[in-house]
Amino acid sequence: MNVSDLLLKVLHNHGVKQLFGIPGDAINDVTDAIRRQNTVDFVQVRHEETGAFAASAQAKLTGGLAACMGTSGPGAIHLLNGLYDAKMDHAPVVAITGQIATDYIGSEYHQEVDLKSLFADVAVFNEELVNVEQMPDLIMAACRAAITENGVAHLSLPTNMSGLKVGGVDKSRLVPLGCPSVSLPDPKLCREAAELISQAERPVIFAGIGCRDARPELLALAERIKAPIVRSLRGKDVIDDEHPLCIGGVGLLGGSPAVHAFADCDLLIMAGTDFPYREFYPENAKYIQIDTVAQNIGRRHRVDVGLVGDAKSTLARLTVEVPETSERKFFDHALKSMGVWTRRQERTRTSEKEPITPARLIREVSDRAPADTIFLCDTGTSTAWTARHLSVGEGQRYTLSGGLASMAFALPAAIGAQLTYPERTVIAIAGDGGFGMLMQDFVTAVRYDLPIVVIVLNNGKLGFITLEQEGAGLPDYGTELANPDFAKFAESCGGTGVTITKPEEIGPAIDRAIASSKATVLNVTVDPDALIMPPKIELGHAVNFTLAKAKEFFDFD
Ligand SMILES: Cc1ncc(C[n+]2csc(CCOP(=O)(O)OP(=O)(O)O)c2C)c(N)n1
Ligand SMILES: [Mg+2]
């Protein structure tokens, strides 16, 4: 067994199914080892960033380890953005990079990049192999660090090391250790939290992606204490507007029921969320915060009781500790206002306008997606439209580049998702700017027979930036896109490409794309002027917007 064989064995033992990357130069021994075994598949992408995003998406969806690789220098550098996505969304990813031979390190050798420095910020584990005997321990430590710290582990393999024999490795050293998955907070603090809950008259639960495995417990507590559930954006993957206890999201992309519930509540129970926008937190409420990471407690808002534990067991514990509430005035009011808000949204969701209203497009996707669909979303207005108009059902999944908010996530993430879940429907919802950034990897989906559906919201611009500029009173500048024909492009890759310009074409095209066994791009011409209305319009927004429009019209500063 050589270093590369050992690498694959350990990745396989940790459940890694694919290694995404581009071969060459310093990692040829790794690709050769992949060729000689059949446990970890090599997925050749057309840009290493795609590979890192695909691995990050897999890790976000499964909670398990995923992996990508890049060669020394440029290949490693290309991985970085996707790895930052994993870092910021706490996804366990191992990144393998090649490195120049150890004899030349420090000589400004061809493709020499100080990879340990480069990866220092992104990785929770960051090492370079300098002695073959280290390999079993190093790769085991890398996997363990990624999994236990939910982050990126980087291991760099110099080209003169990756083909060397590793002698006498006891197989038992290569087996992953089970990690405790249940952690319960201090019982005394649980009682204090229960006391706060029983005193509250207007409690709200704010659920984040940390509740991923705790949906039944979340619902049980909400029912028991009559608290409406507000979800974070990544929390759509836990509970969404389809559920009668959920009143949507907060923040700029949220809706007015959640914003009002936040304003009026007297207790906020934060469960597995690290929502960063301080200005949206309730001012006069008491706070309980549940998080597995102690460091997160109180970092967004001061809390009255911090519970360090996993959401599933902590919510279950609180449900047992608190008495059932019969008072439901606040609760019923919140649920009712959600009903009103939803009916109000229907107007844009059924719009017959041309160019197509994005809300109509997203709603048609939502209505037609099968019960097992996995949605992968880009950063841009697509984030806002899916936040508002895509309803993620109980058996469906939704993820995006949450913390990093990088463009171009949707397509690579769909590739990763479809490889992990070959039987499920996978729909990427992308911007034309975001799709254009890594669109070359649509051919990867075709090549590996992944029947993903990519919906491109083609507004001919970096629409979200226009809104940012105009929201700040600035004229729209530098946002127009000169797009190729995305449908023709998809066809030229061997996939299916369809351009949609009329609202009535959307539904049948989505149905056909979902039923197709080929990767499909639906290139949808959407209204470039569609406005994302904040849940509460303040005078400043309106003034800035009018000012920006006047500047654009009269061309003045
Ligand atoms: C890699 C990257 N570059 C720049 C940005 C800043 N940014 C955020 S949204 C956006 C525009 C996205 O345009 P598009 O994909 O066309 O989506 P739209 O907003 O038009 O729907 C930009 C440039 C970013 N988030 N990520
Ligand atoms: Mg766009």
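^ thiamine diphosphate complex. The chain has a mean pLDDT of 96. The pocket of thiamine diphosphate (ligand 1) is lined by residues 378-382, 405-407, 431-434, 457, 459, 461-465 (CB under 6 Å).
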